[in-house]
Amino acid sequence: VQLVESGGGLVQPGGSLKLSCQVSESIVNINVMGWFRQAPGKQRELVAAIDNGGRANSEHYADSVKGRFTVSRDNTKNTVYLQMNNLKPDDTGIYYCNAPGLWSDWGQGTQVTVSS
Hints:
Blueprint: E1 3-6, E2 9-11, E3 17-23, E4 32-38, E5 45-51, E6 59-61, E7 69-74, E8 79-84, E9 93-98, E10 110-114
Parallel strand pairs: 2-10
Antiparallel strand pairs: 1-3, 3-8, 4-5, 4-9, 5-6, 7-8, 9-10
């Protein structure tokens, strides 16, 4: 599988970005898709995940991003999104998407830098 993340950039605190992840194969049967973040000097962590099927309570967030980030998916486009609002300097890092525990391949990620 190939994963291509995009949409990162440099943004001031309080700003917004929307990340996209294009997957090279169909995600319609992938139960959970997630966004991961690797901050400088830290391990990669899961920050948001979305189940398939659009069921209620199908989104899951790390406490650090809850209320500010929104994950979504478009199975017809094999794409996963991460809307990030009210960004903070601690959100700085490289963002990756993947299916947690399913694929060993990772994309190059997209760099998000939050700084004034």
